[in-house]
Amino acid sequence: MSMPFYVSPEQVMNDKAQYARKGIARGRSLCGIVYDQGILLAAENPSAVLHKISEIYDRIAFAGVGKYSEFDALRRAGVQFADVRGYQYSREDVDARSLANAYAQMMAHTFTNEMKPLEVEILVAEVGLTASEDQLFRITFDGVVLDEEHFSVIGGESEPIAERLKESWSEGLSLGDALRTARSALAGPDRTIETSSLEVAVLSRTNGRRAFRRIEGEPLTELLGS
């Protein structure tokens, strides 16, 4: 009788992590930036139909990179989680922290127990009533939650983009300045990103109860040129 092939648990986890990182790296990166009136979310996305950035609840947004079908399934699960929590308790009890923890549990379970890990990285953002209450949570493919300040980047080129944002971000940025900062950081020094390839949305304190708003077309062009 032949002996079964043995692979150590450490090697299995390393192989899964490498597989997930390769899948995420094939997608274009995305960033979230705190500006004076809220949070800006910007992504390089040539598709006008397959959105990377979406509304989850009143003051909460979701963004994902990697395999679209997988992070869109996570988006739908987040909407359901928020709706049920808001119905059972109150709308004020739906917050980004609990949503990020729920996502972390789902993604960690898949990474640990399934043969194929999720090839996604996601960002959950919540705009507060004041700037000090703004929240950005980055959740990696293995369910690790990172609570980040000022800005957050997800995707295959997150490290160099984060370095560029670290150099250019400053407190009190206007929406136009934040948008130009985001586009410059996403593009890097050797290329530019056309307006038609940008997906942009904001969570704004001035929008009322539903803070999420997409920016596209002429308003986007005006902001980039202002």
How far is the N terminus from the C terminus? 74 Å
Number of helical stretches of at least 4 residues:
6
- Number of domain modules: 1
How much of the sequence lies in strands comes to 15-25%
Order of helices and strands: HEEEEHHEEEEHHEEH
CATH topology: Glutamine Phosphoribosylpyrophosphate, subunit 1, domain 1
What is the makeup of the main sheet? 5 strands, antiparallel
Total strand segments: 10
CATH superfamily: Aminohydrolase, N-terminal nucleophile (Ntn) domain
- Morphology call: globular
Helix content: 25-40%
Which regions are unreliable across 5 or more consecutive residues at pLDDT < 50? none
For the record, the CATH architecture stands as: 4-Layer Sandwich
Largest sheet strand order: 8-1-2-9-10
Detailed description of the structure:
This protein is of the alpha+beta class and 226 residues long. It has a single domain, classed as Glutamine Phosphoribosylpyrophosphate, subunit 1, domain 1, CATH 3.60.20. Helix content is 39%, strand content 25%. It is built from 6 helices and 10 strands, in the order αββββααββββααββα. The strands form 2 sheets. It has a 5-stranded antiparallel sheet, with helices on one face. A hairpin with a 5-residue loop joins strand 6 (135-139) and strand 7 (145-148). Helix 4 (158-168) runs antiparallel to helix 5. The protein is globular, with a radius of gyration of 18 Å. The chain starts with 8 loop residues before the first helix and ends with a helix.
